[in-house]
Amino acid sequence: MLKVVVLGGGNSSERPISLKSAKAVAGYLSAKGHKVSLVDPIGEIERYTKQLQTADVVFPALHGAGGEDGQVQAYLESLDIPFVGSGSVSSRLCFDKYKYLTLLQKNHILVPQTNLVTKQQFFASALKHAPFVLKPNQQGSSIGTLIVKKPKDYDEARVSELFESYGSMLLEPYISGQEITVGVVAKAALPVIEIVPPANQAFDYVNKYNGKTKEICPPENLAASIETQVKQLAVQIHNLCGCRHLSRTDMIVDGQSIYVLETNTMPGLTDQSLLPKAAQADGIDMVELCSMLVNMALDLG
To answer: What percent of the chain has pLDDT over 90?
Structure first.
């Protein structure tokens, strides 16, 4: 039996999903016989040092700023406490989408044409005259993402609000194709999941969690050769970015072209989350998955 501290909640805009992930993880680890404490780190993580130091291992089921951006990971590293998930350097890299996409591009991995723009640069950009995507550089769960398929109809006031909230934003051309995601656990790819939002809608924050998006595993219309490629690509990116234990990479397949969008270093871990669904399709239930991750953090195999 191990003493495990599960971190969930925190201060980010993804707090509700993090709480669900943490509650699920805590339940599964308890079912495995571990002694589990659930901690909601509101405010500075240093306030919880004594609780963290009681643990054999920490499971930071945190999403978003302050939890998935390397801050908590760096503090756990400074305390020399084993923890599940990527280290601080990898977490920081993957959370900064522009740096992450730049690294991938330098390594000849196809990504959308991406610009980090201010409000003034956006309104002067030629990219906004064609279908485009505007998203925060450091954010998850598609929060703050604007997908515009008809450029003449976009809401300028909404765009201004986004820049007021986030300062600079990523501007990318909209790519139409099959949306897929590939989880990696222990440096091995899980089955591919195809994401099909409701008709004429996007896979945004609302459609991620309202149950209306279809998540198909295995994909029905993905060529076997492409499926092999995207799994290899997910593992390649996991290793390139220095991820460990788990990650989930989102991509769009447009014909024979595979565009990489982002890598999540601590994807959702609720019953409805994508990585657990892929693991289940691979014969790994959540009790086993959570136990595997804890063992990996302690190098127990």
So the answer is: 79
Can you list the domains of the chain with their CATH numbers? 3-84 (3.40.50.20), 94-110+175-284+292-297 (3.30.470.20), 115-173 (3.30.1490.20)
pLDDT of residue 204 exceeding 60, the answer is: no
281: exposed, middle or buried (C-beta count within 10 Å: 0-12, 13-18, 19+)?
middle
The pLDDT score that the predictor gives to residue 199 is 65
Is 205's pLDDT higher than 90? no
Asked whether the CA dihedral 205, 210, 212, 217 is positive or negative, the reply is: positive
**Residue 295 has which token pair?**
């063992």
Strand partners, 38: 6
Predicted confidence at residue 81, as pLDDT, reads 97
Quick one: pLDDT at residue 299? 87
Q: What pLDDT score was predicted for residue 151?
A: 87
Q: Whole-model pTM?
A: 0.92
Band of pLDDT at residue 211, cut at 50, 70 and 90:
low
Give me the pLDDT at residue 207, please: 46
289 contacts 248 by C-beta, under 8 angstroms: no
